[in-house]
Write a structure and sequence with these properties.
Length: 266
């Protein structure tokens, strides 16, 4: 799936009164933008998987963006702090989510600077944006307190994100894009226990993937002039259930994963 053209202005729709909409720029994903639904659901699937693993814990969601992920975590966690440096995103998240979640707050800060004792940290789809990933992981390890002390860090797989044969994608906000071995080595240099999962297509996205690979579906509907009508219906219908996480310990081929999710313990 390709992202909507970032030069075209996509604004969030249907927000509560008093909550300013954010524009889709390609730097972060957003809910409430139909053309972005694939990427939003792809990220939401991981947040929901983590939610079941942080029930009753104090969680810090680093680089929380629009705030939807912190909101999901707050439905199970004891408390959630969303940390976001961008002023527009911070203001939006505070106004949209804090009023309905008494255990959720947002602070405007850098991930390298914000420090508070916690049981769990989430840092999703952001480590590829930072110039000092090792320092960031060390900082996270210092924040975590036993007995739980777990960090969840995700990043896209460059092998499936970049065009075939390219060294990296064209995303201008990405500083370093990782293969599975590179990402595992980075995490293992700063945490003793590293478990790596891959995010894969499931259900209708898996069927669509197979149709593209074996039936050349894109060529067929292009010849029939159905490309735009098809994706205008297909993309908004994607849900987080159309993605699945699988562990490398269960034989998942991480080279074929969409994203990597590392579960890290000191």
């Amino acid at each position: 799936m390709t992202r909507p053209e970032p030069l075209v202005l996509h604004l969030q729709r249907g927000l509560p009164d008093g909550v300013p909409p954010l524009a889709l720029t390609g730097e972060r994903t957003l809910p409430d933008v139909p053309a972005e639904n694939y990427w939003y659901r792809r990220h939401l699937a991981v947040y929901e998987w983590i939610r079941a693993r942080v029930a009753g814990l104090r969680v810090v969601d680093m680089a929380s963006g629009e705030g939807y992920g912190a909101d999901v975590l707050a439905t199970a966690a004891r408390s959630v702090t969303g940390v976001e440096a961008n002023l527009e995103a911070f203001d939006h998240a505070r106004l949209r989510y804090e009023p309905v979640r008494p255990n959720l707050r947002f602070v405007r800060s850098l991930v390298e600077v914000h420090a508070e004792p916690c049981d769990a940290i989430t840092f999703l789809q952001t480590i590829e944006h930072v110039r000092n990933p090792g320092e960031v992981l060390e900082h996270f390890g210092a924040m975590l307190e036993p007995p739980h002390a777990v960090a969840f860090v995700s990043t896209p797989n460059v092998l499936t994100l970049a065009p075939k044969g390219a060294e990296r994608s064209g995303n201008p906000w990405h500083i370093k894009e990782y293969r599975a071995g590179e990402f595992r080595a980075l995490c293992a240099a700063h945490f003793d226990d590293v478990e790596l999962f891959g995010l894969f297509h499931a259900r209708k996205l898996r069927l669509h993937e197979l149709a593209l690979r074996h039936a050349r579906w894109d060529d067929v509907h292009a010849r029939l002039g159905l490309t735009k009508p098809f994706y205008d219906r297909f993309t908004p219908a994607i849900s987080q259930r159309d993605f699945a996480l699988r562990s490398e310990h269960d034989g998942a081929d991480l080279d074929r994963a969409l994203d990597f999710v590392a579960v890290l313990r000191p």
